[in-house]
């Protein structure tokens, strides 16, 4: 009888020890506080640097604030203001190459750099607005909402420009040769790694 008790106690101890040694590792919730350091930076010093491109068309890019702004409404410095121009020609296709230079100052390679130009209603017009690019691996022009790079390595740059097609025979979104939708327009730049 004593042997039977010792065997049962021994097995019970073995099961208890095995359960403690293996553990289940299950939990319902864990709440922990950690410190996260996040800093914002202007376009000129962020991980993805945005700055006016060198050359004449860089004059259409305003970088006086923390973020850049492309002005094709006659308010830009340089020739547009000097010659009293107030906007784009109606019923014409206008190309502005080399407007903005984008530099990857992050630690990872960028695999997609998507440019999307929308109006104040958030509508995307891929017929009126397209982009030029200095990336030789990407066919220019790039459709609105498309990527202007295949890859952008750390420390590398790409320059893009804008094509505005207001030709009514090419573009069903244009009425009377004027801009579609309602401005102002917003350029969204999305970088994927």
Q: Would you tell me the overall average pLDDT?
A: 82
Gross geometry: globular
User: How many beta-strand segments?
Assistant: 9
Strand order of the largest sheet: 1-4-8-6-7
> What would you call the structural class?
alpha+beta
The count of domains is: 1
> Which regions have little confidence, pLDDT < 50, spanning 5+ residues?
none
What is the ordering of alpha helices and beta strands? HEEEHEEEEEE
Determine Rg (CA atoms, Å).
Answer: 29 Å
Describe the structure.
It is built from 2 helices and 9 strands. It is of the alpha+beta class and 193 residues long. The chain has one domain. The strands form 3 sheets. A 5-stranded antiparallel sheet has the order 1-4-8-6-7, with no helix packed on it. Strands 2-3 form a two-stranded antiparallel sheet. The longest helix is centred in the N-terminal third of the chain and has 21 residues, at 2-22. The protein is globular and about 65 Å long.
């Amino acid at each position: 009888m004593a042997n039977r008790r010792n065997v049962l106690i021994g097995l019970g101890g073995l099961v208890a020890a095995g359960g403690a040694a293996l553990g289940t590792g299950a939990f319902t919730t864990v709440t922990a506080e950690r410190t996260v350091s996040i800093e914002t930076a202007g376009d000129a010093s962020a991980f993805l640097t945005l700055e006016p491109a060198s050359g004449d068309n860089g004059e259409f890019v305003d970088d006086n604030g923390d973020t850049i702004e492309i002005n094709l409404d006659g308010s830009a410095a340089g020739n547009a203001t000097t010659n009293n121009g107030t906007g784009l020609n109606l019923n014409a296709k206008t190309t502005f190459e080399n407007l903005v230079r984008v530099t990857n100052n992050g630690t990872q390679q960028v695999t997609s750099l998507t440019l999307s130009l929308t109006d104040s209603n958030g509508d995307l017009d891929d017929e009126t607005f397209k982009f030029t690019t200095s990336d030789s691996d990407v066919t220019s022009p790039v459709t609105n909402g498309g990527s202007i790079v295949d890859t952008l390595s750390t420390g590398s740059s790409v320059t893009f420009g804008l094509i505005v097609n207001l030709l009514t025979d090419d573009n069903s979104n244009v009425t009377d040769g004027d801009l579609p939708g309602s401005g102002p327009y917003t350029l969204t730049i999305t970088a994927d790694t």
